[in-house]
Amino acid sequence: MEATAAPFSSIVSSRQNLPSSSSIRASSPASLFLFQKNIGNGNRKFKSPRSLSVRASSSSDSGVTLLDYGAGNVRSIRNALRHLGFSIKDVQTPGDILNADRLIFPGVGAFAPAMDVLNKTGMAEALCTYIENDRPFLGICLGLQLLFESSEENGPVKGLGVIPGIVGRFDSSAGIRVPHIGWNALQVGKDSEILDDVGNRHVYFVHSYRAIPSDENKDWISSTCNYGESFISSIRRGNVHAVQFHPEKSGEVGLSVLRRFLHPKLPATQKPMEGKASKLAKRVIACLDVRTNDKGDLVVTKGDQYDVREQSNENEVRNLGKPVDLAGQYYKDGADEISFLNITGFRDFPLGDLPMIQVLRHTSKNVFVPLTVGGGIRDFTDASGRYYSSLEVAAEYFRSGADKISIGSDAVYAAEEFIKSGVKTGKSSLEQISRVYGNQAVVVSIDPRRVYVNHPDDVPYKVIRVTNPGPNGEEYAWYQCTVSGGREGRPIGAFELAKAVEELGAGEILLNCIDCDGQGKGFDIDLVKLISDSVGIPVIASSGAGTPRHFSEVFEKTNASAALAAGIFHRKEVPIQSVKEHLQEERIEVRI
Ligand code: 1PR
Questions:
Q1: Three-state SS for 23?
Q2: What residues does ligand 1 touch, defined as CB less than 6 Å away?
Q3: Which terminus has fewer CB within 10 Å in the chain: N or C?
Q4: What is the structure's pLDDT at 73?
Q5: How close is the Cα of 286 to the center of ligand 1, in Å?
Q6: Cβ distance 111 to 143 under 8 Å?
Q7: 175, 286: one domain
Q8: Could you say which of 231, 262, 293 is where a domain stops?
């Protein structure tokens, strides 16, 4: 496919202030990669605008036009629209935008490559014309940001220029963690219409850049959100809407936003749904460790200190259920996020492991909260000599329904290399994926093991005084990172790794602890405190949850943004709702 830059003036009347493609930086290999992959996989062809003529609108009441330019997870919005009974017509030409009855633009990825593609395909001009004509439009996330004049993301880069203002990065020096990931509350203006059912409930955000309210854009703003500062969470003018949050990832309340956009004549809700949202909520995440058992079935398993085999003569892989079924159950139970970790991914090639892709595809049909997938994300050459970049692996996961990918072993090697050389090569999977999809889409999963020492100077890694002394009375410990599912210890500590991967572009840290895994005795508070105090990105505390009290403890004693558990949920010992209720009682804000 060629990303054509043919003039669009033959079909659209001339307009002012259009972003000129010459002001956009040259197409990055990443954006072209995405675009080409998209065309290749979706059998879609973007035609030159010259070949178009404006047709009369033909969409039915249950049809919606979707502008998918090929980056990130657009499957979720497709699934949400289908779930709501709508059929989707994909934009293939700029003319499809002009002829749409209602258009959804779920922008994902980074600002510059997105604008690059929009300009080169003539879509930018068509979008501006469509919006100027007050046609029904819903932009999501980057689809909101692109409406502004420009963005500082790898820029400045010119946007569509529909709304006055510059999209800038959240200021982490104000003591907030960037990216802004999680469920936050809105301050909804009067005439928002599509937000009528949101009321005082949390919706899901994931972004590092935001537009801020000003006198010039105040007429557009339909809601704001607070995260260190007030930023624009939605805009509305006439039939044109855009939201910074992800309705397709905001559970039932998010689906109501889409429903109201698709059915603008729905009666206004007299009383918004109940809720008590006021700020960013602490997240409760359900984690599914997935692997193939000895019979060849893909199962959810769970280890004790990473040993997932039964202590029986058969020594079978523990089978705690089917991945898609369990994920669906956890969604209904109120999980704020679901993680799938392909725990044998370090030895199998993920794209050869199609069941994992299928799990994502099926899960994302009915689960409307964020999905993370990890395991085996790295560059790979298969038996026939075909080389797959980690970017291709990640792209396939995103296309299959993942919102974030999680990198384990490969991030350890990248961090070791970076610490040794002091140079960011830009070639590691972590750097490549975060460059293309944004760092909010990249989680680094750390599998550390506690190593007790007698003295802080015993090892060249960050050593802390531990709350509970070691078996020989040792008062200190460091946390050694491992690879290959805990099988191999590496010469790097969790502290050093966390700092390095933040530099390399990780957007979030999933902090496991081999010693605590499956023990049900609580999170390793010393470790979670160490890491969550050392980095500016969100940290997910993982391993060891046994009771609801363990969740409140980790939120009260550390700066963790989320807490993850597996065994207690799989064995139905503690329902997710009980955890949430307990956190509420302890006055810790959660999404209910
Ligand atoms: O190295 O990029 O291929 O990624 C492999 C991924 O698989 C890593 O994220 C790694 O953490 C995970 N993994 C590998 N082996 C195991 C294992 O258990 N044998 N699982 C494994 C890690 C840890 C948690 C677990 C919590 C909570 N599982 O995710 O869910 O400890 O458990 P609990 O609440 O029951 O205590 P790569």
A1: helix
A2: 287, 289, 302-303, 306, 308, 341, 343, 345-346, 374-377, 406-410, 445, 447, 485-486, 512, 517-518, 542-545, 565-567
A3: N
A4: 64
A5: 12
A6: no
A7: no
A8: 262
Q: Is residue 275 part of a domain?
A: no
**Domain CATH for 225:** 3.40.50.880
pLDDT of residue 351: 63
The pLDDT confidence band at residue 349, using thresholds 50, 70 and 90, is low
Domain presence at residue 38: no
pLDDT band at 344 (very low <50, low <70, confident <90, very high): confident
What SS3 string covers 47-114?
Answer: CCHHHCCCCCCCCCCCEEEECCCCCCCCHHHHHHHHHCCCEEEECCCHHHHHCCCCEEEEECCCHHHH
Q: CA 349, CA 393: separation in Å to the nearest integer?
A: 9
Check residue 592 and give its pLDDT.
87
When divided into structural domains, the chain yields a total of: 2
Strand partners of residue 299: 291
Report the pLDDT averaged over residues 265-290.
80
CATH number for 292: 3.20.20.70
Could you tell me the two tokens for 82?
């289908």
Shared-domain flag, residues 436 and 566: yes
- The answer, yes or no, to whether residue 453 has pLDDT greater than 60, is yes
The whole domain housing 363 covers 282-305+318-447+482-586
Q: Which atom of ligand 1 is nearest to the CA of 520?
A: 36
Active site positions, annotated: 141, 246, 248, 289, 447
**pLDDT of 459 over the 90 cut:** yes
Residue 193 has pLDDT above 50, yes or no: yes
- Amino acid 43: pLDDT: 32
- Supply the pLDDT for residue 12: 26
Q: Which residue has a Cα nearest atom 2 of ligand 1? A: 408
What's at 434, amino acid-wise?
Answer: S
Q: What's the gap between Cα 184 and its chain centre?
A: 15
pLDDT higher than 60, residue 321: yes
Let me know if residue 256 belongs to a domain.
yes
Whether residues 373 and 521 fall in one domain:
yes
Q: Is 209 left (phi over 0), alpha (psi -120 to 50) or beta?
A: beta
Dist CA 91 CA 98 (whole Å): 10
User: What is the pLDDT at residue 455?
Assistant: 96
Do both 228 and 297 map to the same domain? no
Reduced to 3 states (helix: H, G, I; strand: E, B; else coil), residue 269 is coil
How is the beta sheet containing 230-237 ordered, strand by strand?
87-90, 63-66, 103-107, 137-141, 240-243, 230-237, 221-226, 186-188
Kindly state the average pLDDT of the residues 29-44. Answer: 33
Mean pLDDT value of segment 473-488:
97
Distance 305 CA to ligand 1 centre (A): 9
